[in-house]
Amino acid sequence: MQELFAKYGSTGIIVVVWVAIFYFLILRPNKKKQKQQQELFNSLKEGTEIVTIGGIKGTIAFVGEEYVEVRVDKGVKMTFRKSAIATVLNN
Q1: Do 84 and 52 contact (CB within 8 A), yes or no?
Q2: Residue 52's closest CA among 64, 38, 68?
Q3: How far is 67 from 79, CA to CA, in rounded Å?
Q4: How many angstroms from the chain centroid is the CA of residue 13?
Q5: What is the DSSP string of 35-91?
Q6: Residues contacting 44, CB < 8 A, separation 6+
Q7: How many CB atoms lie within 10 A of CB 80?
Q8: Beta bridge partners of 72
Q9: Does the predicted TM-score (pTM) go above 0.70?
């Protein structure tokens, strides 16, 4: 057993360290960002001012399951996927 550890122990430790680095630098922050984005989508309601990823500013007129209808001017409404919303200006 000691021979195995002596032969492969340092390689195993290096692999474990790299997995830990990968988790803490890539996976964990990504999960946190996805959670924040889901909270943003769940908080959307009519009358909320938003900015899309394309830079279009408007007010939410209707919230659906996957889409929102955004009023960008009087009589002008556009439909976007919820994932296209970059920022909520007011709630």
Answers
A1: yes
A2: 68
A3: 7
A4: 32
A5: HHHHHHHHT--TT-EEEETT--EEEEEEE-SSEEEEEEETTEEEEEEGGGEEEE---
A6: 50, 60, 63, 68, 82, 85, 88
A7: 19
A8: none
A9: no
Among residues 52, 87, 53, the alpha carbon closest in space to that of 71 is found at 52
Which residue has tokens 């709630």? 91
Give the angle subtended at the CA of 44 by the CAs of 63 and 86, to the nearest 5°.
105
Spatial distance between the Cα atoms of 86 and 82, rounded to a whole number of angstroms: 9
**pLDDT tens digits along 10-63:** 777 788 888 888 888 888 888 888 898 888 888 889 999 999 999 999 999 999
The residue behind tokens 């399951």 is 65
